[in-house]
Amino acid sequence: MAIHRETELYVPVKAFLERLGYEVRGEVRHCDLVAVRDGEAPVIVELKRSFNLPLLVQAVDRLKHTDRVYVAVEMPANGRAPHGLAWSDLSRLCRMLGLGLMTVRFYKRKLPAVDVLCEPGPYGPRRSKKAALLLMNEFRERSGDYNIGGSSRRKLVTAYREKALQCAYFLHLHGPLSTRRLRELTGNGRAAGLLQKNYYRWFRRVKTGVYELTPLGEDALMTYAHVIRDWNSGRLSGAGAEIASASQDDSGSAGDPD
């Protein structure tokens, strides 16, 4: 059952803290809730019906009073976090800001339940060497910048898609080719695996170790013709320039799939 006012969060949060031995007061120096326990720094809780940016700004401002600041929001009946995120995402954000996060779930026939999803405190995210390596590999293996930052629900030109396009391009130029020949033309030692996996369904095996282009592959060459034009323009370095050079050496023409 959805609440109508953030003040409805006060009583269950107050009862929760009182069970832990705190003395609680509401609206103290503009703080929604202040709780005190002997010998400890005060706890401040800011209340909002739903998790939002103004709540975080308000809570961060309360850190000037104490390092024990929580935000408390209603847990919806469906259990979903707002904004299409997960509660773990919101918890991580709160920890990064030095805040704690509480949720309050209301029921028709029993008392509300308060759950502490994360405690306030210093946040030190663990760096992942693997994630950093994958990021840099993806960056370096792309031949150019073909995506608009912030895009969603559109096909991106990734390093993997470029490698598939390289294979499709040479199959378009020459017809069926062996995986060995495609490795030589593209400079991609993993070309055979890419063709066998056939993630985009651009390729069809005509016999052992030999592949041809499917209609979907031909369509892809039209869709990503701008990428191939860059390979053939001579403006690129690295993989893109190698593809242009290989196509010219092998066919005598830089042939545009358009």
Care to describe what's here?
- It is a single chain.
- This protein has helices at residues 10-19, 53-62, 87-96, 129-141, 159-174, 179-186, 191-197, 215-223, 225-233, 239-251; strands at residues 23-28, 31-36, 43-47, 69-74, 100-105, 113-118, 177-178, 203-207, 210-213.
- With 258 residues, the chain is an alpha+beta fold.
- The protein folds into two domains: 6-118, Trna Endonuclease, Chain: A, domain 1 (3-Layer(aba) Sandwich), CATH 3.40.1350; 131-251, Arc Repressor Mutant, subunit A (Orthogonal Bundle).
- It is built from ten helices and nine strands.
- The chain has a six-stranded mixed β-sheet, sandwiched between helices. Strands 7-9-8 form a three-stranded antiparallel β-sheet.
- The relative contact order is 0.09.
- Mean pLDDT is 88; it is low at 235-239 and 251-258.
